[in-house]
Amino acid sequence: MGILIKLNQVNVDGKKIRTLLVEDEEPARAIIKEYLKTFPDIEIIGEAADGFSGAKAINDLKPDLVFLDIQMPKLTGFELLELLDHQCLIIFTTAYDQYAIKAFEMNAVDYLLKPFSTIRFNEAVERAITRFHSIKTDVKVTQALLKSADESTEYLERIAVRKAGNIEVIPVGEVIYLEADGDYVVLHTANGKFMKEKTMKYFEQHLPTSAFVRIHRSYIVNVEKIQRLELYEKDSYLVALKNGEKLRSSDAGQKLLRQRLNL
Q: Residue 199: phi, psi to the nearest 5?
C-alpha cells in the first residue's frame, strides 16, 4: 500500500501509463495483468504473444511502457528492439538468468526473473513510473538500449529486417555478402536484398569471424559463398561468388581473406 501512495504522489499530471505486454506464455501475461491491477496509473492497451506481433504492436500503439519477454520463438526481445520506430520504457521478463547482465547493460528499466514475487514486480513498476515522469530520461532510455545492443560483443546468429511492412529473420549463414549503402547495409541473400540501418563496422564486429571477412570497405563476404579468387590486375583480385557475382577486394581485405582461407 505504501508503494501505491508514493505512485499517486508521483503521478501529478494524472496521465495513464499506456502499457503493452509482449510475452509468448499466456499464464505469464495473466500474472502480469493480475499484479498490475494494484497500479491505477497503469493502463494495459494490448498484448502480443510473439516478437513479430510485438514489434508491430509497439510501432502501431506507441505504448509508454512494455513488459518484454526475452526468449521468444522466431524473434527475441533483443532483436525486437532493433525493429522499433517508437521509443518506450522496457521491463524485461525472462526465465533465463543468463540475460540479466546484458539487459542491465542495455539500460532497461528493470529485469524480472521468472517466477518473480509481487514485491519484486512492484519495485520494477515503481521504477518505470518514476522514469516515465522524468521527461529528461524518458526518450534517452530506449536510445541507450539500442546503443548498448550495438556495443554488445556477442556474435549474431540471425538478422531481423523489415521489408514491405513485413519482418524477415535471416540466419547469418544465408547471407552471401553485405554491401555498404550510405547509412544502411544491404544484405544480399538467395531470396533477395534487404536493407538494415546499421554500419559495416557493426556487422564486422558482430558476424562470426570464422565465417565472414571484410574484403573491402564496401563489402563483407561469407567465405562459404566464395567460388574462387580471380586475378584482376597485378596483385589485385576479384572475389568470384558461387551466385556468379564478383566483388573487388582491397589489398588489406585480400590479405585477410587469404589468411582465413589458409592460402
A: -105, 160
Q: Are 170 and 187 in contact (CB under 8 A)?
A: yes
What's the rounded Cα separation, in Å, for the pair 50 and 60?
15
Q: What is the mean pLDDT of residues 164-172?
A: 86
Question: How many residues are present in the chain?
Answer: 263
Q: What is the pLDDT of residue 35?
A: 96
List pLDDT tens digits, range 117-132: 999 999 999 999 988 8
The answer on pLDDT for 7 being more than 70 is: no
C-alpha cell at 15: 496521465
CB neighbour list of residue 19: distance below 8 Å, 6 or more residues apart:
36, 42, 43, 44, 45, 63, 64, 65, 66, 67
Q: Is the pTM of this model over 0.70?
A: no
Contacts of residues 135-143 at CB distance under 8 Å and 24 or more positions apart, as own/partner, are: 138/89, 139/87, 141/87, 141/89, 141/90, 141/107, 141/109, 142/81, 142/84, 142/87, 142/88, 142/89, 142/90, 143/87
* Backbone phi, psi, residue 158, to 5°: -155, 165
Cα angle value 112/113/115 (rounded, 5°): 110
Residue 57 CA neighbour count, 13 Å, CB half: 23
Write the single-letter amino acid at 138: D
pLDDT band, residue 87 (cuts 50/70/90): confident
Comparing 4 with 113, the larger pLDDT belongs to 113
